[in-house]
Amino acid sequence: MDLKPSQLPGMSALLSPEEARDMDRLVPIRHFPKGTVLLKAGDVATEAWFCIDGCVHMYYDVDGDLRTTEFYTEGQAVASLYSFINQVPANHYLACVEDCTLVVWSYAAERELFGKYPNLESSCRVAVESDFGAHQEKFASFITKSPEQRYLDLLEQRPELLQRVPQYLLASYLGVTPESLSRIRKRILAKEAAR
Amino acid sequence: MDLKPSQLPGMSALLSPEEARDMDRLVPIRHFPKGTVLLKAGDVATEAWFCIDGCVHMYYDVDGDLRTTEFYTEGQAVASLYSFINQVPANHYLACVEDCTLVVWSYAAERELFGKYPNLESSCRVAVESDFGAHQEKFASFITKSPEQRYLDLLEQRPELLQRVPQYLLASYLGVTPESLSRIRKRILAKEAAR
């Protein structure tokens, strides 16, 4: 049997029976095999997603060179907001790095649910602001820290990610070549061994 | 006489008389002279702002080296969201690059207004999502474009900014030294002259 939004952990406490019924009717949860492209550059985003399980990455194709700007994992919202809100073509890609289970949030469902349930919209506002805050911090970290420092931050904050994504994607996320990432790792290991 | 939020262009059409009265009571508009520091690293943000007039920049102090991550001008919201939402100390500064007129939006006012007026919260959600979308695009532009391309984008999208902010701040915003910015400008002028 398919999983429903109202069956997700913690959701029954958040949703009234009526809200739960409408969520389950309007918002499907789907499985996507590894490699699935959710959004292509040039497409208009008509959906956003919420990651239940798996890993999605957002990336840009710069003259054939792939640049990852985010890895989304369990508990994170995945959205090409500029494209979704303004209904204009996206300039990037969203693809599944692993097999994924995702809540599929359409523009049409959002309008119906927010129109009926101001509380639901309020919860979403808080979540979006929190994600925006985290994004401001991420941008700042890119501006103010070296790739080695950003790698150390990842090691502390999202250690599981380092095991889950291929090294060339991790390197592109840190803004370095795979060879540089390999040197960064060796340097860190050498420092740890010298302690 | 002091300016009130309900007197701002377009606001009378958006707000009911009751909303306008509460906004004017809870949300002041204040003037800040050039150089005013609105938020210091280490402070907890208890306010956000909306720029009516002037220019505010967000910057980081990296071992004495100033790095600007944003210039906020007329019509833009100014917020250290991570600090404001989580009520934790900010890791950056907000300061007025010019004399500024700003709407001062406190956490307390937000709670009272959103509690009473779901429509107001809905408008804010849409605005925050739109700003978040723009921020995603900005991060992507930093990851995918050269400083020269980013300078050309600024020239096209925010030409007035280039006249308003000091060159060393503009250079830090583009992630280059003032000398590099000067070279970029000369290269662009030479290309234009050769056309």
Topology at a glance:
Two copies of one chain form a homodimer.
Chain A: H1 11-14, H2 17-26, E1 29-32, E2 37-39, E3 47-53, E4 56-62, E5 65-72, E6 77-78, H3 81-86, E7 93-96, E8 100-106, H4 107-116, H5 118-144, H6 147-157, H7 159-164, H8 167-174, H9 178-194
Antiparallel strand pairs in A: 1-8, 2-7, 3-6, 3-8, 4-5, 4-7
Helix pairs in contact in A: 4-5
Walkthrough of the structure:
2 copies of one chain form a homodimer. Chain A has 195 residues and is an alpha+beta fold. Chain A is built from 9 helices and 8 strands. The longest helix of chain A is centred in the C-terminal third of the chain and has 27 residues, at 118-144.
Brief overview:
Chain A is an alpha+beta fold.
**What's the architecture of the domain at 5-116 in chain A, going by CATH?**
Sandwich
Task: Please state the overall shape of chain A, judged from the principal axes of the Cα atoms.
Answer: elongated
Q: Name the helix and strand elements of chain A from N-terminus to C-terminus, one letter apiece.
A: HHEEEEEEHEEHHHHHH
Strand order of the largest sheet of chain A: 1-8-3-6
Question: Within the CATH hierarchy, at the fold level, what is the topology of the domain at 5-116 in chain A?
Answer: Jelly Rolls
Characteristic terms for this protein:
Jelly Rolls; 4-stranded antiparallel sheet; 195 residues; elongated; 51% helix; alpha+beta; 22% strand; 8 strands; homodimer
